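Blinded run. Sample ID left blank on purpose so nobody reads anything into the name before looking at the predicted structure. Input follows.
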Amino acid sequence: MTEQSPRERLMTGRSWEEFCDAIKSAGQTILADGSPTDPLDRAEGFRYVTRLARTALEAFIEHADPAAPVLNRPVHETAKIGADNPDNYYQHANISGAYEYRIRGKRNTIHYLDFGTQSPGVASTGDSEQGGHLDAKDMQIGPDGRFEIVLSCEPKPGNWLRMTPQTTALIVRQTHLDRSKEIPAELVIERIGGSGRPALLTPEAMDAGLKQAAGMVVGCTALFSNWAKGFRDKHVNQLPKFDDSISMGAGGDPNICYYHSYWQLAPDEALVIEATPPECESWNFQLDNHWMESLDYRYYTIHVNKHTAVYAKDGSVRIVVAHDDPGLPNWINTVGHAQGTMCFRWIRAASHPQPTTRVVKTSELAGLAR
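Blinded prediction complete.
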């Protein structure tokens, strides 16, 4: 059989059929052996696939042209990937190492702001490489809070974000301490020497976009499902340090020390986590579902950070994960879940102390009151 060209694939409907087949195959991950059979986990699993499809189509169809990049929000309150941080305002743009770009921005009051360039594979295959990283604390910013950044493969004066010939994505992390008060930075990106207008859609571009979108949905579903199963098999209700090389391969922040794991609690059990935070930019702990989606932080207290935590007199912090409010500080709500993943982060920390964990009966929690 003669291999069809991208145009022929699109015109005959093969591109679309393969995209639909890929989405269907991603759904099989939700049903695979070892995946949870709880009705809530199953429902969230299929919702997760629909969210990934929505995110992937936005990234690779609507905002695909690196010659006219757009900063969009691939991860937010109703689209979640890989233990998304509830404190973060994530942004992404498709770019290319073949071009040079300029970001113009206003810093505003967001607590933490950084930029990274990545090669293919972010949050889908786990084998991406970071080309460059730029932290707001290292940037030249005007007295009015305005700044410019140049993205290029060759060094530039001023605020420069390194790219490589393999670069395909810009990732921006803006991290809140107090989401109710802080204003995210205002950012726009442009290709230097470009018109700002994306190219007209072609059959070839549509074929390529559908392939990339399908790859992201299938890749993300498989990657993070495998992570979750691995956490569950090795260290339930513990918080070991995560391998830095793996986190970076999935688009992690080099300023962050991650502790990914799995939690599982009976109706009469609670998880107690204790640590003494070091000097750091920030830290947080969050509870996720099995698919590594943060639980709904819009309506429930499912995470705690450096600003929101209640501390003991000695500077330590105790976090209590429980199904019902025990009347203790730093309660994390399981929101009807019996199990899932979880993540602890130290952000630009002077040291990385190991959080301790223990499972107790809920009847014992009253004895922990300070």
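Unblinding after everyone has recorded impressions. The longest strand covers residues 339-349.
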